Amino acid sequence: MTNNFTVENCDLNYTNEFLLQDSPLNFKVKRHNLTSEYQDNKWGMQSTKPTPLVGLFKEGKESTFLGAHTERYHVVENNDLFEHVRDAIVSSFDSNDNCYQTDNLLRNVTITDKSSYDGAISMRDMVFNNSKFENVTNNGHTTSNALRIIVLNSFDGKTPVKVYGGNIDFFCLNGMVLGSFDVLSKRHTKNLMLGNMSSSIRNLFLNYARFTVDMKEQSQKTLDGERGRAFIEKCFEGMDRKTSNMLNQYDEECKTRGNNVWALTSAFTAYSSGNSAFFSSKNTANDHQEYTTLRRQNTVQRILNSDGYRELIAA
Fold it and tell me: Rounded to whole angstroms, how far apart are CA atoms 242 and 13?
């Protein structure tokens, strides 16, 4: 089974789980005690306080280990979480202040399930193709972009369950995170609840509408190449190899998109997406590329939200 699984042309008005039955994320989790009910304390005497450790495993013949936790850890199954978010997306359009045409936007959605660390990190990436719009830079370069929503689930005991909103550039497949929110009312405890997230989902859509305006403005705003290079050098100060690769990527973006703010933004998103020859994730025994990419996109978004970046594009 591959780490990624994609289904095109989904309609979020209906559950799509039957289309995703071959997904690497279509598994249930089982629990097994890893320690005895009691353990010795630091004096070598048996403690009266139970300290059980519970292991989470994929159900099935291989019984893949996902993580170890205390007994208070509560599992949120992938299919339950994904269906809860899908329902919240549909419900978010009940509000009259939504800026999109509901029925059209929820159709023609590309869903990609992505597995990292054997499924301990599970992500569903949804691209809303009917939100697609054309962006033109000041040198006439045109690209198509669309809204994407990423649902992140975890069984490793340390990664939060989140929903991210962002952008996908179809020219280079660069991804960009614009905002996120926690799905759970509490961390993985026995009192955990999947709360009402319709308002938060609606905010992701509204933020994206504002982003499309900012993107068009950045694409028409001229930026001197030396100022862009100086900003990159400041962001990656002390990291010579990364700085060199970022400067090379920026030069390529300027050749393609022109000398504008969006070319600088695109250089950063190329780094975060790993779709450039200058950047890639290290290959290790544990597949982590998809989760590493998401973490990079969070890092880049902090840079793009920084005062230094805002001052640069405002000048």
Answer: 43
For the chain, the domains span 4-21+75-214, 29-70, 218-314
CA atoms within 13 A on the CB side of 50: 10
pLDDT digits (tens, 9 = 90+) for 126-165: 999 999 999 999 999 999 999 999 999 998 877 888 888 8
Q: Hey, is 273 helix, strand or coil?
A: helix
Between CA 108 and CA 234 the distance in angstroms is 41
CA atoms 279, 134, 211, 252: torsion sign: positive
What pTM, to 2 d.p., does this model score?
0.84
Locus of tokens 């990190």: 121
List, as one string, the DSSP characters of 95-157: STT-SS-HHHHTSSEEEEEEEEGGGTEEEEEEEEEEEEEEEE-TT--EEEEEEEEEEEEE-SS
